[in-house]
Specification:
Blueprint: E1 14-19, H1 26-36, E2 41-47, H2 59-69, E3 76-81, H3 85-91, E4 96-101, H4 104-120, E5 125-130, H5 140-148, H6 159-172
């Protein structure tokens, strides 16, 4: 694969793909698979304690579900992190951050975050990938709600995630 070298003289070889991944979905995996083709190394960063989300799975469970999901992507790793995403990016020496965009509201949120991150870590480039049409509507929140109500979730997540989600949802009832 041909890689052009950016103005700074260094190829974008390491990227992070941060999120809560509670749980990881086929939409997340689609973005990760496509990003893995663009970078030598992709690190899925599982955010430990998001302030604005009610988590169903523990950090370790989310990391393990993601690791099992990416087993066939040799240049993709999974790590948990806490604190600022840009600090995580610096720690792992990432040159880019990958985000998936599903709709206009995602763009507005990502644009705001990108501007803040650029001030905090100017060397970090943002790479946004449009969600596959098949997953435009899919979010972990909707997935968890469907699972709680007994919906068929198998086409939205890897098999091991569907099993873990059903088990977790039923244990909370």
């Amino acid at each position: 694969m041909h890689r052009s070298i950016p103005k700074g003289g260094q190829a974008l070889t390491i990227a992070i793909y941060p999120g809560s991944f509670d749980p990881i979905t086929n939409g997340h995996l689609d973005i990760a698979t496509r990003a893995a083709k663009l970078f030598e190394k992709l690190i899925i960063g599982v955010y430990d304690t998001p302030q604005d989300k009610q988590l169903l799975f523990t950090t370790q469970e989310r990391v393990e579900l993601a690791r099992q999901a990416i087993i066939n992507l040799p240049n993709v790793e999974v790590e948990s992190f806490s604190g600022l995403t840009v600090d995580f990016a610096q720690k792992v020496k990432a040159q880019a951050m990958v985000r998936g965009l599903r709709m206009g509201a995602d763009f507005e949120r990502e644009f705001d975050l990108a501007m803040m991150n650029k001030k905090l870590y100017p060397e970090l480039e943002l790479v946004c990938l449009m969600a596959n049409q098949e997953y435009q509507f899919l979010s972990s929140s909707l997935l968890k709600e469907a699972a709680r109500l007994g919906g068929k979730i198998d086409s939205f997540v890897p098999k091991h995630v569907a099993t873990a989600l059903r088990k977790k949802v039923h244990s909370k009832m």
